[in-house]
Amino acid sequence: MPAPEQSAGPNLNKLARGGALNLVGAAVAGVQGLALVFLVAHLYSQRVAGVFFAVTSLFIILQAVSWLGTDAGLLRWVPRHLALGDRAAALRTVPVALVPVLATAAAAGLVLAVTAPWTAGQVGGGDAGEAAAMVRVLALFLPLAAAHDVLLAATRGYGSMRPTVLVDKILRQTLQVAGVVTAAVLADDAVWLALAWAAPYLPCLLIAALWYLKISRADGPAKAPAAPDVPATADSPMPAGPAGWRPLAGEFWRFTAPRAFAQVCQTAFQRADIVLVAALSSPREAAIYTAATRFIVISQLVTQAVQNVMQPAVSRLLALADRAGAQRIFAVCASWNLVLAWPVHLSIAVGAPVYLAAFGPGYAGSGETVTVILAMAMLVATATGARDVMLLMAGRSGLSLVNQSTALAVNLVLNVLLIPPLGIAGAALARAGGLLVRTLLALVQVRRILGMTPASAGLFWAGGSALLSFGALPLAVRLVAGSSPGALAGALVPGTILYFALLWGGRERLSLTAFASLLPGRRGRAAAVGGHAPAGPAAPPAADTTPARSAHAGN
């Protein structure tokens, strides 16, 4: 019999190792994402760039529609089945997710190709024919992109972060940047630009499929558990995996269906404003707005890097009824997220003129207002932790849908009302309003329903350190020396040194000692998640918590 597993589950050292790998991928993807916008802005006219950003945003929205929320479903159910020892159910869960996604993506791609002339007429500016050709090219790759995303989510469900980092964060985006440069040099055609952006999904899909097969088959033939004895709780109502395909599929889609709509709302929230700016204003304004808001992607990648290791861990802990461990992960990951995200938003807000000047002379001016508005809104969003993850992993996908749809509705209504009189500043205010609504709703729900909060001594220490190092100090330098690149660099260098010194001083509060396990020959300090089993009858006895662990957990 395998040794009993601690109810606290994965420790912070393991999360730190997985998180560090994800952060490397997030850093590379952030740089590549900025490079892509920078290159398109410099190699193509603002009209072509605006159309490209609008149609790729539409592609990403349809990709989210086709995904059907299966990322959350896989990251809830695959770790759960593995924690309860049912590897057969974990294997069956992936085709239960993949087949509907492929069918939906193929249908969406067909509709997109057929309606390409109408779509191009809305965002194509003076050349709807060129825009229609770009739309048709992207429609061909929609099923490939959707399948690619599902298979990578499945590998994360098995506890391996490497495929997502290496294939999606690094390889795909590197190929996209290289393709954009090659298309500009060889063809100078907007259609080839769209093809260069979409084509990397094909090799990345093949690699993701092979990697998933390797991970899922690593432990030999799958066997269902004999009789797992984990008590049911409010967070884990069905401890034993279902025996057949139909019960498993029904269980999976009852949870995932609300997430499918929530995923659409979330992606539309992030991308619809670009499409609306192109339609209600002009493709040129859409290009400026995209450049002004691109820094948000860096924050999203950082947040995603933390969430990718957090989701399966929280799902597993809640399956074992360890609420104290889940709260510990929630709070620590919130402080880690703030440590990484706030320096970006504060620096961008203070140095907005320098940031926008990098995209070319036509991108400054009105873009500065957009950048500052959204940087301030992102400070609030990134300080409150992965609220949506906590709701999803606790099975509250319906609440996630309510939050995402409410935020999208606020965003769309404000966009329609504010873009005509205010231009892209109105679009920024609309996104900020929707973002704050979504953040506050989820924060209140996590507190009232789960009794959990992201607040901790580490969170407040990190926030104060970032405000001093990247807010107060650079702002003082800007007031004295202006907003030139040299002045900004002169403020950020000592600010960064001060920040690292403050983080070192608060390393215990922030649980940064867990990262000592990354050093050669060091296992790091013991930083078990939620060092106690939760009190009360909901906590499973030690003898009952003996599930077979996946060999890839924590990779």
Question: Overview of this structure, please?
Answer:
- This protein is an all-alpha fold.
- It has one domain.
- It is 74% helix and 0% strand.
- It is globular, with a radius of gyration of 23 Å.
- The N terminus and C terminus are likely disordered.
User: Mean pLDDT, as a whole number?
Assistant: 80
Specify the number of helices.
Answer: 21
Give the overall shape. Answer: globular
**Regions with pLDDT < 50 over 5+ consecutive residues?**
1-10, 222-243, 522-555
Beta fraction: under 5%
Distance between the termini: 24 Å
Number of extended strands: 0
Task: Write a short abstract of this structure.
By secondary structure, the chain is an all-alpha fold.
Features of the shown structure:
21 helices, disordered N terminus, disordered C terminus
Topology at a glance:
Blueprint: H1 12-43, H2 46-67, H3 70-83, H4 87-114, H5 116-123, H6 128-140, H7 142-157, H8 162-186, H9 190-198, H10 201-216, H11 245-280, H12 283-293, H13 295-319, H14 323-350, H15 352-357, H16 366-383, H17 387-393, H18 397-422, H19 424-450, H20 457-481, H21 485-505
Helix pairs in contact: 1-8, 1-13, 2-4, 2-6, 2-7, 2-11, 2-12, 3-4, 3-7, 3-11, 3-13, 4-6, 4-7, 4-11, 5-6, 6-9, 7-8, 7-10, 8-9, 8-10, 11-12, 11-18, 11-19, 12-16, 13-14, 13-16, 14-16, 14-20, 16-19, 17-19, 18-19, 20-21
